[in-house]
Write a structure and sequence with these properties.
The protein has about 425 residues and is an all-alpha fold. It has 18 helices and no strands. Pfam families: BPD_transp_1.
Length: about 425
């Protein structure tokens, strides 16, 4: 078989799947590839044709073409095409490799040997495919749809099927920094989101660390009872706690103003003034988040060897030096990834913002509430004002910020650089 041509086998497989295998005298495999491609073309040709037409045009006749359905069909067509191209690529590579083996004089494997080779090398991939397909249609497709909406003019005044959507490029993103209403709102909400994330998360971490160090002190008695009490806020569902605090912080009849601050003649506008609303939700999040951090740090503190503290005492180390050079490095080494996720989680913490005061109070000259963060603003743009295009654009920015921050911090933490070492 020295005259066997791998290039010809590859070209035949490119022309139509399976022809290269037939040229290599792998008839069963060749017929299988031919049937797969023929079935694919018969089944999906019309679907893909309409899908790609709809993806590029988003429809041509109002009230007849539905831009959203055409967009979704187009995105599904892209996913199907990617799968088809992957299988086609495998077909071409297989034909070329088989042709090379024949040219080198290697014996053609029997059906039993081919099945065994597939089981040894391809079976794990074959088992992963159903989960991968499910992931694509449950996670990737909605993300692709959201990203696509950010580049259209889909809003309350331009809604299919009454009107057709159009691709507008980066117009929605430029509107966030050029149109005064959007610019002032975006800058204000983005700045508050950063402040909220840093203050609330740092507060709950600091409180959890302080209480963990306090309870871990050998002079403290009844440690189990104290730990149980401190964990209790974590046991209560967060939405219940938030609603209770919302009632307690009510300006007129809440317990904070009526029973506590009234004793010194003070009544603060917790729900009607943006500044006090922000203070309230930072305190509530500190209360909600510290039990997890407390439990996390408590476990790590108990794993630190007492010999190191004894050696520090011998060397004359102070309490602060022991905390700085022994306690804190071990705490951060073991918990840094989880602490980073605390920041990322609070950056998108929709529940407390919406349940406490629905992102209010209202702010003049903005289309977001005084305590809205990016994620709650996106919710309002989607369900209250139907600004789907702007909501999608902000969601992309939000996702890029969280992903970039998490990736950067995870790469820099020692837990990843020195994995497996202490």
């Amino acid at each position: 078989m020295r005259s066997h041509n791998p290039t010809l086998a590859m070209v035949l497989s490119i022309i139509f799947a399976g022809l290269g295998q037939l040229y290599n005298r792998r008839y069963a495999k060749g017929i299988t590839f031919i049937i797969i491609e023929a079935a694919f073309l018969i089944t999906f040709f019309e679907f893909l044709n309409i899908g790609y037409w709809g993806l590029f045009t988003l429809g041509e006749i109002p009230r007849v073409d539905h831009s959203i359905f055409l967009l979704i069909q187009g995105l599904i067509s892209v996913i199907i095409t990617v799968f088809a191209v992957a299988i086609y690529y495998l077909n071409v590579v297989d034909a070329r490799n088989n042709a090379i083996d024949l040219k080198l004089g290697k014996e053609k494997p029997t059906v039993k040997e081919a099945l065994k080779n597939f089981y040894d090398n391809g079976f794990p991939y074959f088992m992963v495919i159903p989960g991968l397909i499910l992931l694509l249609f449950i996670v990737v497709l909605p993300l692709m749809f959201m990203v696509s909406l950010a580049f259209t003019d889909y809003n309350l005044y331009n809604t299919p099927p009454r009107a057709l959507l159009s691709w507008v490029g980066f117009e929605n993103f430029t509107s966030l920094v050029s149109i005064p209403l959007w610019k002032s709102t975006f800058v204000s909400v983005f700045a508050w989101t950063i402040v909220w994330t840093v203050c609330a998360t740092t507060g709950q971490i600091a409180l959890g660390l302080f209480l963990a160090l306090l309870v871990n002190d050998p002079r403290i008695k009844y440690k189990r009872f104290i730990r149980t009490i401190l964990i209790l806020p974590w046991a209560v569902p967060a939405f219940v706690t938030i609603l209770i605090f919302a009632a307690m912080f009510n300006d007129r009849f809440g317990a904070i103003n009526r029973d506590i601050l009234s004793t010194i003649g003070v009544a603060l506008p917790w729900l009607t003034d943006p500044f006090y609303t922000k203070i309230a939700i930072i305190m509530i999040q500190t209360w909600l988040g510290f039990p997890f951090v407390f439990a996390l740090f408590t476990g790590v503190l108990q794993s630190i060897s007492k010999d190191w503290y004894e050696a520090a005492d011998v060397d004359g180390g102070t309490r602060f030096q022991k905390f700085r050079f022994i306690t804190m490095p071990h705490l951060l080494f073991a918990t840094a990834p989880l602490l980073i996720m605390q920041y990322a989680g609070n950056f998108n913490n929709f529940n407390i913002i919406y349940l406490f005061n629905q992102g209010g109070p209202a702010v003049r000259g903005q289309n977001a509430g005084g305590s809205d963060i990016l994620i709650s603003w996106v919710y309002k743009l989607t369900f209250d004002t139907s600004n789907y295009n702007m909501a999608a654009a902000i969601s992309i920015i939000l996702g890029l910020i969280v992903a970039g921050f998490a990736f950067f911090q995870f790469r820099r933490t020692r837990s990843f650089k020195e994995e497996g070492n202490i």
